[in-house]
Amino acid sequence: MGWEVISGVVLVLVATLLLPRYLRQGITTIPDFIEARFDKGTKQFVTLLFLVSYVVNMLPITLYSGAVAMSQIFSIEEIFGITYAQGIWVMVWVIGIVGAIYAIFGGLKAVAVSDSINGVALVVGGLLVPLFSILYIGSGNFMEGLSTFVAATPEKFNAIGSSTDDLPFTTLFTGLLLVNLYYWGTDQSIIQRGLGAKSLEEGQKGIIYAGFLKVGTPFLVIIPGIMGYQILGGDISNADMIYPELVSTVLPGPLVGFFAAAMMGAILSTFNSVLNSASTLFALNVYKPISSKDLPDSELVKKGKIFGTIVAVLSMIGARFIMYAPQGLFDYLQTINGFFNVPIFTIVFMGYLTKRVPPFAAKIGITFFVTTYEITQLFWDTGLHFLHISAILFVITSLGMYIIGKIKPMEEPFIIEDKELVDIKPWKNLYRGGGFVIFVMISMYVVFSPLGLAKEGGMNSVTLISIILVGVVCAIGPLLLEKFNLERTK
Fold first, then answer.
1. Which residues of 207-245 are buried (b: 16+ CB within 10 A; e: fewer)?
2. Is pLDDT larger for residue 351 or for residue 464?
3. How does it sit in the membrane (predicted)?
4. Which ranges constitute the DSSP H helices of 6-155?
């Protein structure tokens, strides 16, 4: 719940604060901004972190999670008479080869077009799972199934994590917020969709729409998890298997095929985007700078494709070994991401916030962050959640960079140059759309808390009053922001 729903407010911040600056500068990759703000050395450092995170983490995990889902939905082991591990291995290569063809030979346009089609199918397919799960619980009677589902395990509807839970509620205001800001605002594989917008207005529309979809994910992902617990039982050895087993159990045969296609599309969407980003970063930020000659775009594209092919193969080889991770797939993903995400966001954050922090401060800061985080995760058990550690390191690193900037500032201050490559007129409904997304986000936490469904007997008048108050605040707030922005413009 925390990882998904908090993305709503973060995407509003990205649309409002980050995207206008990116498009005004005309950057095509985040390392481009790093170079403009600091220097080429810092850019190369950040590019290397991006590429390492893609190769050792994002791409293998995407392939593994997709292979788990597909092998279970299609019962690969039973059909071919092979072991679970062999089934995962087969599906990893099938997904990897198909995804690599899309990304390497189609480029970002193919990724964008396929994303649009896959996105619609995924939302429709995702909504079918809870619908048929309710019917399954109620033996064909939807209302009876809904009533039974809500009343059976009220404790499962509490999204307010305690200090002993995998995601304490307090992390939403520390490291979790920073991780989401990195992912949605500076991760090349994600923000490249915004960087490729034909105008600021179109980019902001897309980001706010994405925010609306993210705050609705409890109904697509989290609620089915609770349904899986009720239908399949609580004694499940591998939590990664719950969702595909639920799909196979509740959906009719023809709809299983449709859902598998939608799921395959979602897997390919992530894999394609990350692989395309890796190829782009290598071609523009690694190969081009070290080349001794002025290369045409066609040559850069060719080198990017070769690199993408190598990365795809390495990812397919490494994906199978994710199944041996000691914790669940999602927790493993986020813990390993800590080596890359917040350190990169810290550099971008300080780059925009300050004007005279020098390049060597950025290099020292990111080296300190990555090294210290590694120590706390591998050698020294601090007793703190890794997201709290990320937040503490973010503060220390930012403060250290600021002090260095005061002691030995840059000679010339950094100024954002408007290259006038796209229309940067903002979307007129930005604040209203953002306010609606935040309203839904907060309402989700009211509903999925002891005030709402987690209370014995379900929601009451206090819940409804709380949601109404949230709605009033989120309606008035955007109007005040619009008025303030208009007066400032005048």
1. bbebbbbbbbbbebbbbbebbbbbbeeeeeeeebbbbbb
2. 351
3. Multi-pass membrane protein
4. 7-13, 19-25, 30-37, 40-53, 59-73, 76-80, 84-137, 142-152
Task: State both tokens at 266.
Answer: 């979602």
Q: How far apart (Å, rounded) are the C-alpha atoms in residues 283 and 303?
A: 6
What domains lie within the chain, and their CATH numbers?
2-427 (1.20.1730.10)
Of the candidates 6, 8, 43, the one whose C-alpha atom is nearest the C-alpha of residue 348 is: 43
Q: What's the pLDDT score for residue 178?
A: 93
| Digit-coded pLDDT (tens) for 227-258 | 999 998 877 767 777 888 888 889 888 888 88
E strands present in 344-453: none
* CA distance linking residue 489 with residue 357, whole number of Å: 29
C-alpha 389: how far from chain center: 20
User: Which amino acid type is present at position 293?
Assistant: K
Percent of the chain with pLDDT over 70: 89
Measured distance CA(483)–CA(166) in Å, rounded: 42
Q: How many whole angstroms separate alpha carbon 20 and alpha carbon 200?
A: 6
Q: How far is CA 296 from CA 283, 306, 309, in A?
A: 11, 16, 21
* pLDDT tens digits for range 138-165: 999 999 998 899 888 888 888 888 888 8
